[in-house]
Amino acid sequence: MNIHELVKKQEKYLIDIRRYFHRHPELSLQEEQTSLRIQQELASMGIPYEVVGHRNVVGRIDFAKPGKTLAIRADIDALPMQEEIESDFKSEVPGVMHACGHDVHAATLLAAAACFAEMKEELSGTIYLCFQVAEEISGGGPQEIIEYLNSKGGVDEVIANHMTPALDPYTASAISGPANAGNCQWRITVRGRGGHGSRPDLSIDPIRPAAEILQKIVTIPSNYHDPFHPLVVSPCMIHSGTAYNIIPDECVMEGNIRYFHKGELEEVLAQMDTIAKAIASASGAEAKTEMIAGCVPVENTPEVTEKVYRVMEEMGLKVVKPEFPGMGSDDFGYFTQAYPGCYFNFGASSDRPEAAHVLHNTKLFYDERGFLPITEFFVRYAVDFLK
After folding, report:
1. Which residues pair with 171 in a beta bridge?
2. Is the CB of residue 162 less than 8 Å from the CB of residue 74?
3. Domain span at residue 261?
4. Residues 176, 221: one domain?
5. Tens of pLDDT along 137-160?
6. Claim to verify: residue 161 and residue 207 sit in the same structural domain
7. Beta strands 65-75 and 124-132: pairing type?
8. With 0-12 CB in 10 A as exposed, 13-18 as middle and 19+ as buried, what is 68?
9. Where do the H-state alpha helices sit in the chain?
């Protein structure tokens, strides 16, 4: 079996289906057409599948004989951003684009599925192809898929890739143990009493205490937290008011916390709430702190990560082993909590001068040469695992 040649046959399909997904991005929990197209593609390959929860698609390939089980996950949602770089496959949906690489994730897994469909008599065991919704908002996709997999007896291992524009094509990265931070989306609402801008003495302005709260909570990592435990508190939105001469009733802030260690999230949220209530009370206002959504840290299983390294090196890839985990988050952490697994990165940095080399940027653009190695890795890892 020449795996490289088998995968190479899927190159045009891989590029074409990725460009389709890129032209037709859909936001989290709105992945209707994306999910439907994935179902159609699996059906055309003769791969049975089930729609799980909110449009997750899980394909199943049973090989010639019973054996071990492997799950491969690809997230499929896009972001509320307006794409700026021109191409033949630029997003056709105003204000929505694949600025993270989930279009590539879905396409590379579909191309791998096409390879697996040709290998049904050559391997033992089962592969689950998990196309997951709503990663960008931690919308519950992993929990739905894990519940489904557990109903089938669970899996022995799970793997997933994420694109990175910071690495060149044919370069891959993985880290054993803690790999990515946990994430919490929080909201602080400061409630005052609105009125006329000419008489602040007759009102309770929520903006001023909100501004003070913002300044204070960002000092939690440096002033109140173990400096040897990475922690980030980032206010990213603040909304209040409707006109220049109206004191509003409330001011709302939202942001995120990134953390690694068990119990830290609850401690930080409690401290934020204490700070917010105290500052608001001193101004005659009220404050409420809420956790809106979040995901747990990603913890790569050392034994699985070692196998990932080995397959990458056997492919001739340049393998980067970071010294420290990343502060970015991914709800793949729920999978690595449930099963042994590894979350890794493949590079596809573009040499277009206007391209951004950072995720969640309106000028993100990938070099398509970096896609086929991902599919080849999936196939090689599966063959190595199931043989």
Report:
1. 318
2. no
3. 182-295
4. no
5. 999 999 999 999 999 999 999 999
6. no
7. parallel
8. middle
9. 3-8, 11-23, 32-44, 102-117, 141-151, 207-217, 220-224, 264-282, 302-314, 333-338, 372-386
Q: Do both 50 and 163 map to the same domain?
A: yes
Boundary (domain end) residue, out of 241, 265, 295 = 295
Closest CA to 101 of 37, 55, 165: 165
Q: Is the domain of 135 the same as that of 33? A: yes
Query: What CATH number is associated with residue 324?
Result: 3.40.630.10
Rg (CA), the chain: 23
pLDDT tens figures, 6-15: 999 999 999 9
CB distance 251 to 206 below 8 Å = yes
Calpha distance 94→87 (Å, rounded): 15
For residue 262, what pLDDT is reported? Answer: 85
Q: What is the pLDDT of residue 137?
A: 92
Contacts of 279 (CB under 8 A, 6+ apart): 209, 212, 213, 216, 287
In angstroms, the CA 3 to CA 229 distance is 43
Of 275, 290, 289, residue with least CA distance to 212: 275
Cα(255)–Cα(196) distance, rounded to whole angstroms? 29
Same domain? For 51 and 168 the reply is: yes
Residues 8 and 146 in one domain: yes
Q: How far apart are CA 268 and CA 261, in angstroms?
A: 12
Q: Are 186 and 238 in contact (CB under 8 A)?
A: no
Residue 68 in contact with residue 125, Cβ under 8 Å?
A: yes
Which of 364, 369, 372, 325 has its CA nearest to residue 169?
A: 369
End position of a domain, from candidates 268, 295, 322: 295
CATH number for the domain harbouring residue 219: 3.30.70.360
Both 154 and 271 in a single domain?
A: no
The string of DSSP letters for 234-249 reads: EEEEEEE-SSTTEE-S
Using alpha carbons, select from 86, 85, 80, 130 the residue that is nearest to residue 100. 80
Q: Are residues 145 and 229 in the same domain?
A: no
If one counts the domains in the chain, the total is: 2
> For the chain (length 387 residues), average pLDDT per consecutive 10?
93 98 98 98 98 97 96 98 97 98 98 96 96 95 98 98 96 97 96 97 97 97 91 96 97 97 93 98 98 94 98 97 93 97 97 95 97 98 95
pTM over 0.90, yes/no: yes
